[in-house]
């Protein structure tokens, strides 16, 4: 985006937060419904946004419908505040929501829009996490008809999804779903928790913050309310496994930059050949680094 | 003993129904297409009862409505009208009054179905074991080890090599596919089993083994069954009582021996006489 770009002269024609008030009211009402029925994919009239569908329009509409001038917004893309998607969405919010402050710090944000990650820093009750969702329905891999999927969701009929897991175990001795792991919310609806890695799935369970999921292209909003059960779909005798980042000799890899051993790592190909592992959450990595520097300064 | 299943006035009409549909179709008119409105009367006023552990045969030519009866009872199709009561331990379910979730529960937990075409009863894109697992998972068995054990027990019971349990049923012979289907239907030890032309299209030795298997299962588990077939040999071997259907109507019913040895209706006489 051109940093010198300004909105057209007649700025009055744009509402605060780009969306008109009717659109915001509808989205807010749908959010309330989604919270009332945890995990239910509530349909809504997804608006045209000045960006392609699939670029986070669902998450952005959630953010714009909820944001107020006293909010602090953080936008992350796969953990990073600096990747193209995150930067552009943040600039768009700065442009269309005058008075809103933006931050890169998880702790300072009141509203966090994210793509494919849940921040490493534990969220608080006064924070809201908006996740951008490409495919909202976990049943799509076993049932092509949406009408039938709706019935299956309504009746809590997830046997065919579990059969897929069974087949994985038979063929590969391992469930092969790396992200978008089907997760049962509040004991009934199974959701697609957007393409977060398995590592982040336990963070939805009994979370303190409200988690909202917006699928702009598929026109669905759903929620994991605070303090709600969110359990990955598994067999009783096969526990859910997350990425462990172990080396061949079974040691946990540390982050190459900050040395953290309790974060989700990205695998990087170095220019010199070889590989490095580094925190995917840049804010967390920076803070770990700052804390380490502080310790060195004050022994 | 109270019957496990009681069916009264089961009717299924395809198309816009008119008042003369039932009067102008049937064996005496030699058609099941209503001449007034063109609707197809697939089954009309079918009534019968089934005792626990009993095998009831439904016999008739193709298009006589025998499969329709079984498919409506298994909720594959909705009946136009009629009543069916399924007695389960102490509770009685009025089948066509239940909501879809309750129907699905009964279908998954208490009924079993074996189709003529394994394509309908099995999912060929998953393994044979997975097909059985699906049915066990529908019954809230959620333990991978237990599911594997149950599935291999069932496949052993139905003479499918356990070593091939992780293969797709697509790679199986027709008789094996049918045995996997039977294993799947039996996975939940249902008190009521529907068999729709299970041996049609199989060669004779395979037919005999499958019929033996069905009889053994009936002795072992005391399962009530409805066997739909046009094969008199199957009826003679399996069923204690039989309904004969033609053009959607039951034209004769009674003990199998009686019907086969002393048929009353002209059509049944023709059917029995034409057996090779």
Radius of gyration of chain A: 20 Å
Query: CATH-wise, what's the superfamily of the largest domain in chain A?
Result: Bacterial phosphonate metabolism protein PhnH
* Highest CATH level, the class of the largest domain in chain A: Alpha Beta
Tell me about the largest β-sheet of chain A.
Answer: 7 strands, mixed
State the end-to-end CA separation of chain A.
45 Å
What is the number of strand segments of chain B? 10
Sheet with the most strands: spatial strand order of chain A:
1-9-8-5-4-2-3
* Main sheet properties of chain B: 6 strands, mixed
Q: Summarize the amount of helix of chain A as a percent range.
A: 25-40%
Q: Termini distance of chain B?
A: 38 Å
Average pLDDT of chain B: 89
Count of alpha/pi helices of chain B: 10
Radius of gyration of chain B (Å)? 19 Å
- Helical run tally of chain A: 6
The proportion of strand residues of chain A reads 15-25%
| Strand coverage percent of chain B | 15-25%
- Contiguous runs where pLDDT drops below 50 for at least 5 residues of chain A: none
CATH architecture of the largest domain in chain A: 3-Layer(aba) Sandwich
Shape of chain A: globular
